[in-house]
Design brief:
The protein has one domain. It is mainly α and about 300 residues long. Helix content is about 75%, strand content about 0%.
Length: about 300
Amino acid sequence: MTRRGLVLFGLMSVIWGIPYLFIRVAVAEITPATLVFARTSIAAVILLPIALARVDLRAVLVRWRWVVAFAAVEIAVPWVMLGSAEQRVSSSLAALLIAGVPLVGTAIALATGGADRVGRAGLLGLLIGLIGVLAIVGADFEASDATALVQIAVVIVGYAVGPAILSRRLGGLPSVGVMALSLGLCALVYLPIAAVQLPSVMPSTNVLAAVAILAVLCTACAFLVFAALIAEIGPVRATVITYVNPAVAAVLGVLVLNESFSIAMGIGFALVILGSTLATRQSRAILEARPTAVEAAAATPRPAVPER
């Protein structure tokens, strides 16, 4: 990996590791739907002019139905579910559980015939990852609310289905155009909901700052940086950030929000990462053995996968 690639990788590992902390801060005073509207509308305002300047939207609009589907499963539903869940569970727990997204993605790919055949190592990885998830949930980590855990499960499935839509139905389209249009659509959907859920008093400075950071840094800037990362190292290596983000989120939750941490959580997280690595290693190795495809993807950045 080049020095530029390492810098971009490091930036993305941090940028998409901090949303969990700021989501928990924001939903303490505003509703999850209001947060989603604020985050998507601000980011859309930033990205849409860039997409228009690049003439990205023309090609994207041709496949508008799949853009709507992607926006729903990757942004509209997961973000409000995650915000709602973080009103009842810690940000660290949410982040560690979402580390299981690659496991669900592998299972979906197998079920739909979208992946190369997974051998014993892949199946072992799925099993190890499941044990890791159970270890995380089983620990005493503010996880008493079953509804919140179900909401996080919905987030995990959405984050796993989204990339499948990107790769199979939106592959090759400009990433900025796809994300700008998706964010704009979500903002329009949540506008009437946020209008009736506006807080009666002005949120605190901390909440306003959290919303601004989520919208500008963790959404708009993040997608631009991730597109550059894909162009630099290819879409396969770029997805490895999904293994680093939860660790960053867990550390921030413990240091900033004074959330607890247990040995069981650490062991469970390690098992999830090991399981995800084993479950996805075969398909990654096959893709890396095809430099022509990677070079083509790097030349025309494919839509990025948000893990925020």
